[in-house]
Each structure stands twice: as structure tokens, then as C-alpha cells.
Amino acid sequence: MARYTFSTDFDYPARLHSVLNRPVENNGLFLLRLEFEVFQRFSENVIRSTGKVACRDLVVGKGLDATKDQGLWPYIQALGVPSPNNSQSWLNLHQARKPTWVQIQFAQPDPSDSRHPFGSLSPWAPDGFLVEEYRYELAQGWVSPDEAARSMRISPSTIRRRVAEQEPVFGERLVRRTPGGHRRINLHLLQNLS
Question: Which domain holds residue 110?
């Protein structure tokens, strides 16, 4: 799978899309995946979604003091995490009534896996900007889970897992049921979230 390429020359506004709890074998530790929808300044007062999601995995939990972890501190500050040692405090971030925005500057991609590390992360607000959401054709691209798996070259079980993770956030924009109860997945949206 090709990774998205971000410029390192400017800052991107980004909206916290979701915080997911990933399984960890250590009892008391939580691997949290922060997913940010990346926007780009289109004009002086317009930001437009790129349709890309940038992710970062963080570990919090028992025996760790998140406030003393220099790698976590920028996230704590930028996201305003009220209790950074409590995993639920992180998980509740994307459920706030008002979306959480940050500004990301990407560092050079890691040559071993082409991932873009975050060079810097800071609080940001879209005040004064018109926010244009990602545009995709809702009437096209609806496929069965098996068709999505073939198209994305991954297993049907991985498709089901990804849809289950994203459905609480995207609902009927991502997955719908036919009159017979069969799932239809918005392939274009799923590809942009993966």
C-alpha cells in the first residue's frame, strides 16, 4: 500500500478524527491510535480537506507518567488532554461537542517505511476559516465487503475490522445495509481512512 506524501515545507491544519484503543498484551497499558484528518490552506480564509488521515500511536497506562514523557507532551498540550495518564481521557477527545483541531508540520519520511513523523504539533483553531469537507460521490463506489477486500488487496476479515472501527464515526457515509440486510461499503471513503 502506498503511503501518503505530505510536504515538509508548511503546516497543515488537522482535525482529530478518532482515538482508537488497540490491543496490547501488557495488562494496564493502552496503545492508542490518534487519527487526524489533514486539511490544507486553499486560500487566505479557506481550508480544504485533503482526504488523507495521519495517524500516531501512543502508549499510556499503568506505571507510565505521560506528563514526563517528552514524546507525549506535545500531544497532551495540543489536544488539551485533561488527565493524560488516564486512557479514557484520551478516548473521550474525539467525542467532544466541538472538534479538536491541531496544526501539524511533518518531518522527512522515514526511508525504512515511508512514514511521515510529526515534526511539530501545536493547538490550532479554524476561527475565521471556511472549512471545506472532503468531496466524494456518495452514490458511487458502494461495494460488498468481499469486493472491497479484493480491490484493496486485503482479507475480508480486515475489511470487517476496519469498517467496525470506523462505522461509529462515519455511520451511513461508510456502510449501509441493503433491504436484504447485506452490507455495502463506501469503497472510496474506506480507502481514504485506511
Answer: 12-132
Cell of 128: 475565521
Question: Could you give the CA distance from residue 20 to residue 79 in angstroms, rounded to a whole number?
Answer: 15
| Residue 192 backbone phi and psi in degrees, to 5 | -75, -20
- Establish if 5 belongs to a structural domain: no
Q: Give the predicted TM-score (pTM) of the model.
A: 0.69
Which of 103, 132, 161 is the endpoint of a domain? 132
Is residue 87 a contact partner of residue 21, using CB atoms and an 8 Å limit? Answer: yes
Give the number of domains in the chain: 2
Per-residue confidence in pLDDT tens, the chain, 194 aa:
346 778 899 899 999 988 988 777 777 888 999 999 999 998 889 999 988 889 899 998 888 898 888 989 999 999 999 999 988 999 998 777 788 999 999 999 888 877 888 999 999 999 999 999 876 555 567 899 998 888 888 899 999 998 998 888 888 888 988 888 888 998 888 887 76
- Render 90-124 in DSSP notation, one character per residue: HHTGGGSSSPPEEEEEE-PPPTTT----EEEEEE-
Give φ, ψ of 9 to 5 degrees: -90, -15
Examine residue 7 and state whether it is found in any structural domain, yes or no.
no
- Considering the domain architecture, whether residues 155 and 123 belong to the same structural domain is answered as no
